[in-house]
Specification:
The chain has 155 residues and is mostly helical. 74% of the residues lie in helices and 0% in strands. The protein has two domains: 70 residues, Alpha Horseshoe (Serine Threonine Protein Phosphatase 5, Tetratricopeptide repeat); 52 residues. The relative contact order is 0.07. Keywords: Repeat, TPR repeat.
Length: 155
């Protein structure tokens, strides 16, 4: 009798293990789709559940968990970006400390302006904060050029 129950038990365990893998793959697929359509909170939840399932079965540092952890990190990054956009207007009206510009300051060179324009050209800096920072850099550059022109005219 022991030999008869042994194979049936391992067969049942194998089918449960396959169900667990299928469930994790389904959750990971849902998370990837949610991330693709821009629903980061749902993506984080789905991929987190997939990671938990696979970590419980294979262990947290197993190779089977690498892909879900990667996608989980991407989902968390997108969620962080989305939440930081919500806080983008939090500093409106707060002086940034550059209102007291003096001639003694060493202003940023064109490299910062070039970086800001590259961000604008690629669309990477499309957040409110990015636009405000780029505008500040342009203003500083204009002030620098104006000062240089004034000094050249004096000489």
């Amino acid at each position: 009798m022991l030999s008869e129950t042994g194979p049936s038990t391992s067969s049942a365990e194998q089918s449960r293990a396959d169900d667990v893998d299928a469930q994790a793959v389904k959750l990971l697929g849902e998370g990837k789709r949610n991330l693709l359509v821009g629903d980061a909170p749902s993506a984080v939840t789905s991929i987190q559940e997939a990671c938990e399932i696979l970590a419980a079965k294979y262990g947290e540092i197993s190779d089977q968990c690498a892909d879900p952890y990667y996608h989980y990190g991407n989902a968390l990054l997108e969620l962080g970006r989305m939440e930081s956009g919500v806080l983008g207007n939090a500093l409106d009206g707060v002086p940034d400390g550059s209102a007291t510009d003096t001639d003694d300051e060493t202003p940023n060179t064109d490299t910062s302006v070039e970086r800001a324009s590259k961000l604008e050209d690629t669309g990477a800096g499309t957040t409110d904060m990015g636009r405000r920072l780029a505008a500040r850099r342009r203003m500083r550059t204009r002030k620098m050029k104006g000062r240089q022109m004034t000094q050249e005219m004096k000489t």
